[in-house]
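FORM 7B: Structural annotation worksheet

SECTION A. Query
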Amino acid sequence: MTIKDWPASERPREKLLERGAEALSDAELLAIFLRTGVTGMSAVDLARQLLADFGGLRPLLEADRREFCRGKGLGDAKYVQLQAVLEMARRHLAETLQRSDALCSPGAVRDYLSAQLRHRRREVFCCLYLDTQHRVIAFEELFEGTLNAASVYPREVVQAALKKNAAAVILAHNHPSGVSEPSQADIWITERLAKALELVDIKVLDHMIVGEGEALSFAEQGLL
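SECTION B. Predicted structure
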């Protein structure tokens, strides 16, 4: 039985139109992206198989070109299509954040930073530069490290913030291990950066660590 033979209420496209994208399972959302199945498998069956093979939706979405194209029914065309979709999502989040006060939109900040950093396999340290009204000026990746560490230089962070004419910053980095709890090194470098930036009247509003779950906020944890 093909998807066309299913009751209309159970077909992924019709279900999305009737109940919204949030009502669909990972397999149903992926099936819409795939559009068609392969011989002997509907798009939904293929989606379920791919999710099982990759270990879930996130590993599939974050797979590099070589890994992705090894998947059944996938190839360069699907890879290009997926990368375009992911980049549009990141740009949408960036535009949403730029239209708001970062302090009044902690959810938007988390979503944006997670979209930028969660897929990275190496540790990356970044700054979100803000003006006097706490609106976003720019986002910049400053340092990239190994799988578990990035060397962060306060002088370079200060220089970059001054160059952007920032009044405040939100620091961020990812933990490729998936564990978002801050290490002693994370706490130490945050204190050093806050003191260095304070000397030039730039305030550190937060430091977020992106791991597997929700990004951890130093401000919310009382670490700033």
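SECTION C. Observations
The chain has nine helices and five strands. The longest strand covers residues 136-144.

SECTION D. Sign-off
Analyst initials: ____
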